[in-house]
Every structure is written in C-alpha cells, then in structure tokens.
Amino acid sequence: MNAVATTLKPRKTPVQARSAATVETLHMAAIQVLLQGGLSRCTTTRIAERAGISVGSLYQYYPNRDALLAGVLERHLEGVASAVERACHEHRGQQLSQMGTAFVVAFLAAKLRDPEEARALYSVAEERGGAALAARMRTRIASAVTAMLASAPDARFDDPAMVAKIALGALVGPVQTLLKEPAPARFTARLEKELILLVTAYLQAHQSKAERRSKPAAIARRHQKSKAVAS
Question: Smallest Cα–Cα separation from 32: which of 49, 59, 50, 14?
C-alpha cells in the first residue's frame, strides 16, 4: 500500500453506537463546510467546530482532512451501490423493461439524492482516492445488474456482464456532466425519463436478437414435426 493510500485511511472504525454517531456528525459537518466555503476553507478546525466536537476528537477517527473527505465520499458511493444492488435483487426474474427502469431509477435516486452534496464530493474526489472508490462502486453495480439480466425471462444475453457495464456507463456519463457543469432545469427534469428510454431500448435490442435467433430453431422444429406426422 502506498503512502497516499495510507494517509486516506481512517484511524479506527466506529463500533459502538456513540462512535458511529460521532463519525456521522463529522461527515455531515464536512459536507456543510465544503459546500459553504469550498475546499480551500474546508479545514479540520472548521469541520470540528461545525460538528461541535474538539479537533482532537476528530483526529481520533481520521488522521487528516483528506482522510475524512475520503470517508464521506466512500459513504456516498456505498449508498449508491447498495441502492442499486437492492433494486436489482428485487427485480430478478421480471420483464426486461421493468429491470431497465428499476436500474435507472435506483441509480439516479441514490446518486442525486442531494445534488449539491454529490457535486461537492465530485469536485474533490480525484485527489482523494475517488477513482479507486468509484471503481469499486461500479464493479458492485455491474455485478448486480449482470445477475439481474441473467434472470430475464424474455431475453438471452451472450455476455450479460458486458451489457451491464455498457448500461452503467450510459448512466454515469450524463450524471458526471450534470455534476461538473451547470445544466438547464429542463435537462435535470428530463434526465430520468431519457435515461430510462436509453437503457431499456439498449436492453430490448438484445431481446430482439434472442427472438431472431429463436425463430430459425422454432421453424426447424415445426418442419421436423411435420415430416414425422407425414411419415
């Protein structure tokens, strides 16, 4: 493990309810300070003051500000991955259109639950272990979507893992655009509807392929049956 990764690790993981509540308070305070003054004014002193605890107490959990911000980012991404995993599990065995809709709705609802928070975290993520954390989130989501697609009763995927990754990429791109730069209100308002259309159409294209592959086989079976009856 390199030195940068080590400095982003928390000092300890809260076990007791009181410790967990303290860490939650620190996370909320970090986001508030970040939103109010930006990264340059987001210091451990200001975060501790906003949280109503001493800086020494903060350092019991995190060795520095960046480790705390990495912890906040990890919690955010964990929430997104868990929400999509639940939705995918609940929609296994359902129709392909229902799967696609559930996937999109769950991802957007979790990722954009608090757009300002998501935007603030995105702005600091790259320098604070964000790439590795985001990669872990995408791996978890892709695995959940892959398992869901494999259970579809109305489609057959030659490579459901690839389909899952491409579908996820179709969501990540527009969301990143929304977080990086101001977007018209109509863009945000229509985002969910447009992405549902995009993802479900992509998934249903594989449904059509499965139907086309099954037709020759069905015709051959009928032909063989007809020959058997005639003989």
Answer: 50
Residues sharing a CB contact under 8 Å with residue 51, sequence separation 6 or more, in sequence order: 25, 26, 28, 29, 58
Which tokens go with 60?
């019991």
For 198-216, write each residue's pLDDT tens digit: 999 999 998 765 555 554 4
| Rounded Cα–Cα distance for residues 104 and 92 (Å) | 15
What one-character DSSP code corresponds to residue 39?
G
| Residue 63: per-residue pLDDT | 93
Mean of all residue pLDDT scores within the chain: 85
Q: Per the structure block, which two tokens stand in for 227?
A: 């020959």
pLDDT under 50 in the chain at which residues?
1-6, 15, 215-223, 229-230
Element (H, E) at 96: helix 96-111
d(CA 133, CA 81): 11
What is the pTM (predicted TM-score) of this model?
0.81
**Cα 154 from chain centre:** 25
Tokens for 149? Answer: 């697609």
What distance separates the 2 farthest-apart alpha carbons in the chain?
91
CA angle 99, 103, 108 (to 5 degrees): 155
Do residues 168 and 195 lie in contact, with contact meaning Cβ atoms separated by under 8 Å?
no
CB atoms within 10 A of CB 121: 23
